[in-house]
Amino acid sequence: MPPSTLRWGIISTGDIATTFCKDLLVDPSTRNATDIFHKITAIGSRSLSSAKTFLHDLEESTDRFKWGVENGSLEGCHTLGSYEEVYNHPDVDVVYVATPHTLHHRNCKDALMAGKNVLCEKPFTLDAEELEDLMAIAQAKGLFLMEAVWTRFQPITFAIQDILFSGQLGKFKRLTVDNSLDYKLDERGESHRMLDPALGGGALLDLGPYPLVWAMLVLHHHPDNVTRSRPKVLSSYQTIYQRTGVDSASRMLLEWEGVGQAALTADLTCHGYMDGVAVITCEEGDIVVAAPPSKPQTFHIVPHGPDSSRQGFIRTKTTHHHPLSPGHGMAYEADEVARCIRGGKKESGRMPLDESLVVMRVLDEVRRSGGTKTKDLRGTAGK
Ligand SMILES: NC(=O)c1ccc[n+]([C@@H]2O[C@H](COP(=O)([O-])OP(=O)(O)OC[C@H]3O[C@@H](n4cnc5c(N)ncnc54)[C@H](OP(=O)(O)O)[C@@H]3O)[C@@H](O)[C@H]2O)c1
Q1: Is residue 77 packed enough to be buried (19+ CB in 10 Å), middle (13-18) or exposed (0-12)?
Q2: Is the peptide bond before 326 cis (omega within 30 degrees of 0)?
Q3: Which residues of the chain have pLDDT under 70?
Q4: pLDDT attached to residue 310
Q5: How many CA atoms lie within 13 A of 29 on its CB side?
Q6: Residue 179 carries which DSSP code?
Q7: Residue 45 in contact with residue 15, Cβ under 8 Å?
Q8: Is 154 touching ligand 1 by the criterion CB < 6 Å?
Q9: The predicted structure's pLDDT at residue 311
């Protein structure tokens, strides 16, 4: 059977749109996805010249990204000087939204209203109200909608869940995740999306979704969370970057009742301990995940040793590699979108909408109890 083709319309021409589109150009067979072919049929930008440059750069791709160029992934691609033209283009099956956070709701809504399926970058929206609005529209229109949480689809996340949930390390005790990097804030202009409060700038909304990915995979999905209940935010703190008033760092302590706690950090001022960005502590030892938390490829199982309260099966440290297929690691989520749409699904089982909503509610609570300039920022739900 020939692979089914999914036709992508791309909204905006920034950094992550570039990375995502490059990954669509990688030969799907390199990740055993022989049932799918990704085609980029429209690129929309606020500026037509940006759209044209973006396409030109994709056409010039080398190495592993050349496959798509040579095999028709960009054939007949339309470059458009507005996002609306992408939403309304008959050659587009699904729209990928990669604008700054505060525009996600408006962009997704416009795409859905035009009858298009949507994959939207993290954080899905600015607040839960906006997300609920999108979920209602997608449901009413019978369209597919998903947050682009690429980590969830990478092989390592399945492997870690298998080990953790098998119980071989004993009972789960706690999770610590640190998604930190030195973003050189002082060298950035105040209108940069990471620094501008009006664009939802700051560590919480940009880096925060990744500690939350791990908290969701480890605690929310844990078999002890029988009713899949939401976490409680036990405490949180946001450090304010005085120049623009966004958070340079955010910390949160969450509890899933009956499962355990997660201590999460997102920090734009300094790298963390790269060999252990996520530490999943169980009775017998730790699962230690190496950086970056958005796309790790290695984890270690580290026994607690003779002082452990439980001396069971784990005696020596082991290292486990789960390499990503060629590319940046974003193609797995694109494959999921293709399979869901082909199968008539309206959401992904691996990244369901109600789990995006759980995350959004945590982000809302932390943002609204912090002292930043994004504290009172309201979304555009209903508008
Ligand atoms: N999944 C991940 O790991 C990951 C990584 C990075 C970012 N992201 C998410 O992706 C989104 C975009 O991030 P990015 O790093 O790609 O940002 P970026 O490089 O600044 O690109 C954003 C693009 O949005 C468009 N845009 C529309 N209105 C804008 C405005 N008022 N100000 C600035 N840009 C505007 C621009 O494209 P046009 O001029 O072509 O319209 C711009 O190039 C964010 O929500 C971020 O959280 C996800």
Answers
A1: buried
A2: no
A3: 306-312
A4: 62
A5: 5
A6: E
A7: no
A8: no
A9: 60
Taking alpha carbons only, the member of 79, 66, 86, 74 closest to residue 38 is: 74
Asked whether the beta carbons of 135 and 142 are under 8 A apart, the reply is: no
Both structure tokens of 32: 């055993």
> What's the pLDDT at 2?
84
Is residue 352 within 8 Å of 345, Cβ to Cβ? Answer: no
100 in Cβ contact with 125 (< 8 Å): no
Measured from the Cα of 18, ligand 1's closest atom is 16
The residues near 302 (Cβ < 8 Å, ≥ 6 apart) are: 285, 286, 288, 317
Q: How far is the centre of ligand 1, averaged over its atoms, from the C-alpha of 14 (Å)?
A: 5
- 82 DSSP 8-state letter: S
Tell me the C-alpha distance between 131 and 355, whole Å: 11
For the Cβ of 328 lying below 6 angstroms from any atom of ligand 1, the answer is: no
CA–CA separation, 288 and 281 (whole Å): 8
Alpha helices for the chain (secondary structure H): 15-24, 48-59, 66-70, 83-87, 104-113, 128-141, 155-166, 203-206, 209-215, 331-342, 353-369
Residue for token pair 């501008």? 196
**Residue 6 backbone phi and psi in degrees, to 5:** -110, 130
Q: What domains can you pick out in the chain, each with its CATH number?
A: 4-148+329-346 (3.40.50.720), 155-323+358-369 (3.30.360.10)
Structure confidence at residue 69 (pLDDT): 98
Spatial separation of the C-alpha atoms in residues 88 and 102, rounded to whole Å: 22
Cα 70 from Cα 63, distance rounded (Å): 12
How many other C-beta atoms are found inside a 10 Å radius of the C-beta of residue 323? 10
What are the CA-CA distances from residue 209 to residues 215, 260, 306 (Å)?
10, 19, 36
Output the CA 51–ligand 1 centroid distance in Å: 14
Q: Which of 244, 245, 214, 207 is nearest to 231 (CA)?
A: 214
Cα 213 to ligand 1 centre (Å): 20
